[in-house]
Design brief:
Elements lengths: L1 H11 L13 H28 L5 H79 L7 E11 L6 E4 L12 E3 L4 E8 L4 E5 L6 E6 L5 E6 L6 E4 L12 E4 L16 E9 L8 E6 L8 E7 L8
């Protein structure tokens, strides 16, 4: 029993335990950090002030120089490590800049090219108009007609030989008005509006012009031949003389009962071949037109000065 009481006494006795240490408060930690930061700021200001005021041979400048010397290898290593990245950045930046400059140069080239084309077109048109003026002032221009200089503004289509000119009824043009260039006959107006007109070319299948040989005065009718821009002189009898190289011009009006639409002596073309057969009634005469119908630009419409022109 005594032994049990002793054990019980030992077990029942209170054993002192260590008291838990309290954690430092957050406010105290924040105050310490602020105090450290404030101290560092004050120390930095003091060092800056001393550095500005002391001579270059002062101890603080020496410490700075020593620190710079110690840190120089690290600075060089960092520079070498960063250099490839700078080169890559510079390469891509330069590439973007070059692409931008390339687009600007392309735009400038296109603009200059358009200006050059417009200038070339204006120069060509100016040259054509000058030729037209020389033709108008020449003795070949018919005295009983008034010129209307205009330009081709479009082709009706690629299959028939018809063009649209930038002059119409408001300019005195009417149906069947002859159209020429300084080289020769082009055709006649077949449709007209107030500001434009449709001209059927001499090379169209529906065209026919009374013509004559300027040298031998053999008469015939110029019309479309076998080729696209081919012309022939039809209805020339075998007894008439026509030679290769002869110039074919418009015949003008030969009969008051059947007046011609075209004034006389307008050049049409020159003879390139003459043939005849025993069975045919007329000679086979092919001519080369003076007008280049594939590159028409400026033309002149001949407005008659007669009192009773044919109504449109």
């Amino acid at each position: 029993m005594a032994r049990n009481r002793g054990v019980s006494a030992v077990l029942g006795s209170s054993v002192p335990r260590p008291r838990p240490q309290p954690f430092p408060s957050r406010n105290r930690s924040a105050l310490r950090r602020r105090a450290v930061i404030g101290g560092l700021v004050v120390l930095a200001l003091i060092l800056i002030t001393v550095s500005f005021r002391e001579p270059t041979s002062g101890p603080l400048h020496g410490v700075q120089s020593a620190g710079a010397t110690v840190l120089r290898p690290f600075e060089v290593a960092a520079e070498r490590v960063a250099q490839p990245f700078r080169d890559v950045y510079g390469y891509f930046a330069g590439l973007v800049h070059v692409k931008s400059e390339n687009e600007k140069l392309k735009a400038q080239v296109n603009k200059l090219r358009q200006q050059a084309l417009l200038g070339e077109a204006a120069r060509s048109q100016n040259e054509s108009l000058r030729k037209q003026l020389n033709f108008i002032d020449s003795p070949l221009f018919p005295s009983d007609y008034t010129p209307v200089n205009t330009r081709i503004i479009g082709w009706r289509n690629e299959f028939d030989q018809r063009v649209v000119i930038a002059a119409g009824r408001n300019n005195g043009i009417h149906q069947e008005t002859p159209v020429v260039t300084s080289d020769g006959l082009v055709g006649s107006v077949t449709q007209v509006s107030p500001t434009a007109a449709l001209v059927t070319l001499l090379t169209d299948e529906s065209s026919a012009v009374q013509a004559r040989d300027q040298d031998t005065r053999a008469f015939g009718v110029v019309r479309h031949g076998a080729g696209q821009n081919s012309l022939i002189v039809d209805h020339v009898t075998k007894d008439k003389l026509v030679k290769v190289g002869d110039v074919i011009v418009t015949a003008g009006t030969r009969s008051k009962q059947y007046p011609s639409l075209f004034p006389a002596n307008i050049p049409i073309g020159y003879v390139v071949s003459v043939g005849q057969s025993d069975t045919a009634l007329f000679k086979q005469i092919q001519i080369q037109p003076f007008v280049d119908f594939s590159s028409l630009d400026a033309v002149t419409a001949l407005i008659t000065n007669k009192k009773n022109p044919q109504a449109p």
